[in-house]
Design brief:
Elements: H1 9-36, E1 48-54, E2 57-69, E3 75-78, E4 81-87, E5 99-101, E6 132-134, E7 139-145, E8 167-176, H2 219-225, H3 249-263, H4 269-291, E9 296-297, H5 308-318, H6 321-324, H7 326-329, E10 334-335, H8 336-339, E11 341-343, E12 352-354, E13 360-361, E14 364-365, H9 395-417, H10 421-424, H11 427-438, H12 442-452, H13 469-478, E15 485-486, E16 506-507
Parallel strand pairs: 3-8, 9-10
Antiparallel strand pairs: 1-2, 2-3, 2-4, 4-6, 5-7, 7-8, 11-12, 13-14, 15-16
Helix pairs in contact: 1-4, 2-4, 3-4, 3-9, 4-5, 9-11, 9-13
Length: about 525
Amino acid sequence: MKGYEMDDARFENLVNRMSTVVGFCLVLAFSVLLATAGTIPAHEDLPIHTSLTKDGITWTFSEPVRVGTFVNGDYYVLGPVTITNIDPLPTEANGRHGSVLNMPGSNNAISPFDSRVTGNRYKPEYRVYPPFDMNPGDTLMSSISIGSRGEFPAWMREGYETPESYVRSVSVLTCLEFPVRMDAFRPAYVDRTQHLYYADDINRALLPTLPKVASVPSVEIMAFHFSRPWLEVCYFGFDAAVEYQAVYGREVGRAAGMATLLLMLDFTPAQKESLLVNFIQYGIDLWGLAKAGYPGWPAHGGHGSGRKWPILFAGIMLGDDEMKHPNATFPDLRFGEDMHTDFASCWTGADAVYTGHQGVWDGSPVSSRLSWGPYEHMHPSQWPVAFAGESNWHIGEDYRRCCTSIAWVGQALAARLIGAESLWNHPAFFAYVNRWMTEDDTSHVATILSATGRDYSAGFGRQGQAWDPFVNQMWAAYGINRPPMLSRIGNRSVEAGNPLSITVEATDPDNDPLAFSATGTE
């Protein structure tokens, strides 16, 4: 199977040539951040601008405005202000380069950014065209469209998949009434209350400093990919920002796992700071959607993966109790990893199962199609087929192997390494990932082939591996070896001088071989 190496050609040369300069700048920026974290600049100390440019988007104002910067590099302006021009200019005739004022966050099937978005999701009524006013509390999201699909490859799937989205990049401009602390994160782009979090509150001491493994991705490249806003409102990634964003949940999960595992290695704090700040900002944006009433990222093959962990991680690092317990705070919030995993008797003998293409919610299958729900409790000879005329296509097992399990390993390991399993609050997810990585499926693949004609013997479809070499090496080095569980023996009694016989039973959650020994006195 092809694993994605993060030091791709687009960035490798730049990183190599500028490593010394970048390292110095990171140290300097980190030092400045720590020294000024609690400082609120005076109104008159903010610079004045007549226009701002962020990642290819230029906003022009009717008159000079005071401008500040959030800790992640995004701008805010002190309002009210009037936007007189946006470059590239949003076009009403063909729906390109969309700008949206106060994007709603409760609907996962709308996108105002480009009229070519799939599945009737284009909603032009949310678009704005200059001139228009921004008042304190407003957030403007402006995007750049691409000319045609394929201009940018799917990040982490270059050469294999073409993104569905026509959005290249998005930039966010926030309007505030007063200056904020220099370590303030940008409020979530759908958060109309503009709740502020602060980098000075990050508990960096929670991050371990583990020795690096052999294949370590570039921290700078990963930080770049999280340095701009990820569009998450339109489900299925139909308007993902293809220049830098992961466009499929499988890759979102892979990226979330690798980013946080990188943060747990023995890089210096300055080397990790940009990635740490950018990834927490992503978690804040996702949490803003949850608070706005977004239904979540439900199980649907690989699409729903990767969003729970950024929220949890941000909550842990910032000490936000509600964010650390997303499902307790919002019981109806859905995440693919949880809907796809459950405890049940599996035909392989395991006790943690994959619950099918659309999984289970509140104890019941989501889909009315039997083939899209739980199936691992049945022998493969009994699996329902997914579609008429496709007698050997079992969609649940296909997606279990191609697009979900193999992308969850990094997240599960990162959560374990900082003790977040209980906060995740779905033990079946961790039990299932452990099964995926430790269960020998050699005989199971043969049984499936014999019973269904479906061949999962190819390398990419086998258990015991994550998608990326880095995660595989991290699992090998730091995967949790959990203690065996000894079955309760209870009190026993015999007449003096008679032998005492006890049958001892134990199980190992990692499926390691067990050996028994005993010592004692009469």
